[in-house]
Structure prediction request, 268 residues.
Amino acid sequence: MSVRAFRGGEAAVQNLRHFSQNLKRYKRNQRRMHESAGKSACPAVSPRITDRENAMEFVPSLPTLLAFAAASLLLAATPGPDMTLSISRALAQGKKAALFVVVGTGLGIVVHTLLVAFGISALITASPTAFLVLKTGGAAYLLWLAIQAIRYGSSLSVTKVAEAKGSALSNIATGFSVNILNPKVVIFFMTFLPQFVSADDPAVTGKLLFLGFFFIAIGMPVNALVVLAADWLAAWLQRNRRAMRAIDYSFAGVFSVFAVKIFLTQSR
Prediction:
């Protein structure tokens, strides 16, 4: 082999090596361009944003919240044992005592929300004995309130109102008892809250809890307005004792009707 041929072969090898290096450099640059384009199209999600989104999983969507708020507002304005008790207590002992009853009712709803969220309400309604004990206790308590309305009436004397100011715990306990011993409330929350949450939602427990407390936030102001209206009416009724006594018997009758309805409530 001549020197010229050897040098020509060596030059060819060097050219091939340069070509290979340039090709690798080109591919590397292309890969970097694709990676940068992908990053710009799909920016990295901040860990804080991800944590915030996970923390808000228990909040239902806006359309669901609006539908739930509308339904809750209508239900809160519907007369029931809780509202009847609040009005009766406002006429008998004044607005402060009645507002404590509203607080007790709200605490009862908190318990019902927890029972539904963790599946305990379903166990109560599935047990004939437990459900019978619940509705019997609720009916008996309402009948006792009916008797109290007739025996003591809605005396609006200054002495009775003064005594009522010191019975905050008693009024809270009364409102709580009327609500928690009502099997209709148990069944209502079992059927009402789950309508706004999908059964296969991984955050179903959190959403049920959120909706329960949202219901309280809507219902308590409504009941408070009813109490204020009843307290305003009491000022007029104070001048008409016969009308007040007629209202006492009316409340006794309403409590008795609710007691019968509660006792006849079926779990299914």
